[in-house]
Fold:
Amino acid sequence: MAGGSGLELFEKYGAVRAGHFELRSGLHSDRYFQCALLMQRPQVMEEICGRLAEAVMERIVPEDRPQLVVSPAIGGIILGYELARIMGCRAVFLEKEGGRLVLRRAFEIREGERVLVAEDVITRGGRVRQTIAQVTARCARVVAVAVLVDRRGGDVTLDYPLVSVVRAVPKVWDAAQCPLCERGIPLEHPGS
Ligand SMILES: [Zn+2]
Structure:
């Protein structure tokens, strides 16, 4: 997907902010993607997810078409649901319990199911990897990962095809090395 047009969508709806932010991963950054500002607009999500679903199908063989979308809550729920609606399959989500992501509510990930993992933002990949682990632990098969924003550094790799709406140049720092902290700029915690 063309990164430019995806970023334009975020800008159009004020969903990318400049400042000094603590990300969910604990890293600091000068940019924050407030995906909820896109997700509050079903018509925008329909368009975005239509393009993401096409991008997924371009990256996998037709026989691998997903039967289930699995997302980590809360950020991935709306994205996963809309992707599943477009792809004609089910959507379930994982929830945090005791610091890890688990499947609740009698949701099922069945043995052998072809799974698309969906998440709002990937930075270090922790939540996506936990989600993949829950899928593979049930002998289901991850076929691809779809995210709204891919802000991985070069050292973060995944063993699955990844599609995104925006590929952001990551400007992230460990808190101890953050130049914005050094300049005394107040820190925002938009994800909490
Ligand atoms: Zn900082």
Q: What stands out?
A: The pocket of zinc ion is lined by residues 20, 28, 175, 178, 180-181, 187 (CB under 6 Å). The radius of gyration is 16 Å.
